[in-house]
Write a structure and sequence with these properties.
Flg_bb/hook_C_dom, 4-stranded antiparallel sheet, single chain, rod-shaped, structural molecule activity, cell projection, 11 strands, 2 domains, alpha+beta
């Protein structure tokens, strides 16, 4: 302590440190419920004594108080990275699981409203026609059941088209959300860098940026790198979408109808470099793009387009199988070579399947020359469902494949969501505010404040005696 008055300065530094600690603690308590807030602490260090020189220098000397070095943000970068990684996986898996669940809802398999049940009703109606050949009632039931099957097929295909278009529109919204988050991160990078350069704390800005980086990871995966100057660089597909205080926007390209996907597949591109798709490693956008990919000849395309292709394949095989037998039979008028199913031109097979006969006169139930009561051809058609390579088998194979894929993706989504929840909980346990701990800290700072104030009071009283009562002896 360099002088009597210097002790006041020493106590003042302690007073200021205690007041600042109380303020930070109060801020922590006030933001205990704020999303993304990371608790803070003041960092202090002792101010050493002034150097002494001269002949009589030496011996222990008192320090000059306490210095407030910084207000630290008690976050864990490792846990932040883990949250982003698990958010990327969870976003990807959730997007796929949601799309596959919608496809299962459209098919309604197994169930009385599924195509399998409708198909069995059609085969049963053909058998009834075979048993009562030449009768109008069984023929009417057959036409009704066949029409219901065609309507169910058309309705299912239309729902798949609607799901694809809705998913495509949603992708535009996700791309806009990604651009908005990236722009905010770039802006915050600039503000944080300026604040740090000016010696001001930027902890609240970092909290907000941390939430945005997690949002970007959930949307498009990517990697976050610390630039060392307070800014973050965010990369997706190996290229920076955010670098310092600038960002590169992305855009969705491709058609808005499922039938246009083969010629113009939906993909995410850099706005400044069109035609170059971004290879996303995860996130909701990547998951949505994977299910909206065009169908492939090997069946490994996007699940929505593959479902539509399976509907078309089923419609085509059903018409081919039934028509090939129906052409060999004769109608009540004795004519042959007639189709039972046909397709409307310029429409997908599943959407354009129609029934050719309008009544019993167009149904070829018997073999040529066998008379009007023969139902052998109708009986042969009724057995198509149990033959090798039947439409029933084709449909069952597709339903099984989709069910297995959906179950796998749903389980993956559940596991990814659990992993993300665990990572978030670990992050919160490290960074969130503990009210009990803050209460203890607040008491500590209050007592420190009172102690320093008492030191100042004692020094004041001592100086008062020295200044105002010295030399008053005997009075």
């Amino acid at each position: 302590m360099s002088s009597t008055f210097g002790s006041l300065s020493t106590a003042l530094t302690g007073l200021n440190a205690a007041r600042q600690g109380s303020a930070v603690t109060g801020q922590n308590v006030a933001n205990a419920g704020t999303e993304g807030y990371t608790r803070q602490r003041i960092q202090t260090s002792a101010i050493g004594a002034t150097a002494q020189t001269g002949l009589f220098a030496g011996g222990p000397t008192a320090g000059q108080g306490v210095s407030i070095d910084a207000i630290s943000r008690l976050g864990d970068s490792f846990l932040d990275t883990r949250v982003r990684a698990t958010a990327s996986d969870a976003g990807y898996a959730a997007a796929r699981a949601e799309a596959l669940l919608k496809l299962e809802d459209i098919m309604q398999e197994p169930g009385e409203n599924g195509l399998s049940a409708k198909l069995q009703d059609v085969w049963a109606a053909w058998q009834n026609v075979a048993n009562d050949a030449g009768e109008a009632a069984p023929a009417s039931v057959l036409l009704e059941e066949a029409g219901a099957l065609a309507a169910q097929l058309s309705h299912g295909y239309a729902q798949i088209e609607a799901q694809w278009s809705a998913g495509r529109t949603q992708l535009d919204s996700l791309a806009e959300e990604l651009n908005a988050a990236a722009a905010q991160v770039a802006e915050l990078n600039g503000e944080i860098r300026s604040a740090l350069n000016a010696g001001s704390p930027a902890n609240e800005l970092m909290d907000k940026r941390n939430l945005l980086t997690a949002s970007i990871a959930s949307l498009a995966g990517g990697e976050v790198r610390d630039a060392g100057d307070g800014t973050l660089e965010i990369l997706i597909g190996g290229n920076a979408i955010v670098s310092a205080d600038s960002f590169r926007p992305v855009q969705l390209t491709g058609g808005y109808r499922m039938q246009d996907a083969a010629a113009a597949p939906v993909q995410l591109e850099w706005a400044h470099r069109p035609g170059s798709p971004i290879a996303l490693a995860g996130g909701t956008i990547a998951g949505a793009l994977s299910v909206l990919a065009p169908a492939a000849t090997n069946g490994a395309g996007g699940e929505v387009a593959e479902a539509a292709a399976s509907y078309n394949a089923f419609a085509g095989q059903l018409a081919t199988a039934v028509n090939s037998v129906h052409r060999t039979g004769q109608t009540p008028a004795g004519t042959t070579g007639h189709d039972f199913f046909a397709f409307r031109p310029q429409l997908p097979p599943a959407l354009g399947l129609t029934i050719v006969p309008a009544d019993i006169s167009g149904i070829a139930a018997g073999a040529p020359g066998s008379g009007g009561r023969d139902g052998s051809v109708a009986d042969a058609i009724s057995q198509i469902g149990v033959a090798a390579g039947s439409p029933d088998g084709v449909w069952a194979s597709f339903v099984t494949k989709l069910a297995v894929t959906a179950r796998t993706d749903i389980q993956r989504s559940e596991l990814a969501a659990a992993a993300n929840a665990s990572a978030v909980n670990m992050q919160l346990s490290s960074a969130s505010v503990d009210l009990d701990e803050e209460s203890v800290n607040l008491l500590t700072y209050q007592h420190a404040y009172q102690a320093n104030a008492r030191v100042m009071t004692a020094i004041d009283e001592m100086l008062n005696v020295l200044i105002n009562q010295t030399g008053l002896v005997g009075r």
